[in-house]
Specification:
Elements: E1 3-11, E2 14-21, E3 29-38, H1 43-48, E4 68-75, E5 87-90, E6 93-94, H2 100-104, E7 114-115, E8 127-131, E9 135-137, H3 144-149, H4 152-164, E10 171-175, H5 179-190, E11 194-198, H6 202-211, E12 215-217, H7 224-231, E13 237-242, H8 247-256, E14 257-265, H9 276-281, E15 286-289, H10 298-307, E16 316-320, H11 325-333, E17 339-343
Parallel strand pairs: 10-11, 10-13, 11-12, 13-14, 14-15, 16-17
Antiparallel strand pairs: 1-2, 3-4, 3-8, 3-17, 4-5, 5-9, 6-7
Helix pairs in contact: 4-5
Cofactor: Zn(2+)
Pfam family, one: ADH_zinc_N
Domain Enoyl reductase (ER): 11-342
Length: 344
């Protein structure tokens, strides 16, 4: 049996590149040759050994990487809708296929789901085996890097923007301008919103401005709240998205929202502290968690990228080979990269 190189994150900031067998496809599976696979901030929970997805099942015993894109090189005998040579991205949630959530397209809400890179072998390898139903066919002119970024990074924020209700009348605040927040700027602008983007790091604010943000602010600036009020005509924001997971950002966003506004919590955080009476009840806000996207949203994601000529490769600040995995995760952990992508 042929072997392949694959990356594992056993915890304690350890990165292991192992030689393992190339997986064999079952009747409903496909085998992909990997061309791009992104590093995500949630991967660092595996890197440290306290996985935010999968709990005790995510022990670093699986190939990491949940944002992959590649080419089909083998198909199971039951696969009819995909063929060798198809260029695809991969939906990270592997559901049971028959529960109400799966049949609605929300496999990430399936009670029996497995997550690529956490509880199922992921994309930081030379090859990956996945169920054919998890493939997302991409246009011929979309690069592998853009295809990988179109899933968790852009797709998650596109879905969050739609849940927030972004349209041409929206005034949206986005807190945290890492890869997710930057993708949120692109998605919110494409859906017609005016966007104020907030991050304490000057380089991130400058990048968000280049991506089309209407106003960029340092949230630690004492004048930032007043600037948001002026931006929103004194009425407050219609929507907010937090990608930072920071309690101060949660409170600032809730304070900045107009009555009947909507807020999506995207950034991971085990706990936070807010003031429900003043921030929620009196303003009748809608506040909800949002992560990933329904697989049935992907055609709209592709259409938005195409219609607005969005170049997702702009979000990839660094690329690495698989054999550079230790360096890639160390630099990502130290925030010396933004969106880092393994390519081959």
């Amino acid at each position: 049996m042929s072997q392949m190189q694959a990356v594992f994150l056993p915890g304690n900031k350890q990165v292991e590149i192992r030689s393992i067998p190339v997986p064999e496809v079952g009747p409903d599976d496909v085998l992909l040759e990997m061309h791009a696979s992104c590093i995500c901030r949630s991967d660092l929970s595996l890197y440290y050994g306290n996985a935010v997805v999968g709990g005790g099942d995510a022990t670093g015993g699986f190939v990491c990487g949940h944002e992959p894109a590649g080419t089909v090189v083998a198909t199971g005998k039951g696969v009819t809708e995909f063929a060798v040579g198809d260029r695809v991205a991969v939906y990270l949630a592997i559901g049971c296929g028959v529960c109400a959530h799966c049949r609605r397209g929300d496999m990430h809400l399936c009670p029996k789901w497995k997550c690529l890179g956490f509880t199922y072998d992921g994309g930081n390898a030379e090859f990956i085996r996945v169920p054919a139903r998890n493939l997302l066919k991409v246009p011929g002119d979309m690069s592998a890097v853009a295809a990988a970024i179109s899933t968790d990074a852009f797709g998650t924020l596109f879905s969050a923007c739609r849940k927030v209700g972004v349209n041409g009348l929206s005034r949206i605040g986005i807190w945290g301008l890492g890869p997710m927040g930057s993708a949120g700027v692109l998605a919110a602008k494409a859906l017609g919103g005016q966007v104020v983007a907030l991050d304490p790091i000057a380089e991130r604010r400058e990048f968000a401005s280049k991506l089309g943000a209407d106003l960029v602010l340092d949230p630690t600036d004492p004048q930032a709240a007043q600037a948001i009020r002026e931006f929103s005509g004194g009425e407050g924001l219609t929507g907010a998205i937090d990608c930072s997971g920071n309690t101060a950002a949660h409170n600032m966003a809730l304070d900045a929202l107009a009555p009947l506004g909507r807020m999506a919590f995207v950034g991971e955080n085990a706990q936070t502290t807010i003031r429900p009476s003043d921030q929620l009840i009196r303003k009748q806000l809608t506040v909800f968690g949002s992560w990933y996207f329904g697989i049935n949203e992907y055609q709209d994601i592709l259409a938005t990228l195409s219609t607005h000529r969005i170049d997702l490769e702009r979000l990839a600040t660094h690329t690495f080979r698989l054999d550079e995995a230790e360096t890639a995760f160390r630099l990502f952990d130290q925030r010396e990269t933004e969106k880092a992508v393994f390519v081959r």
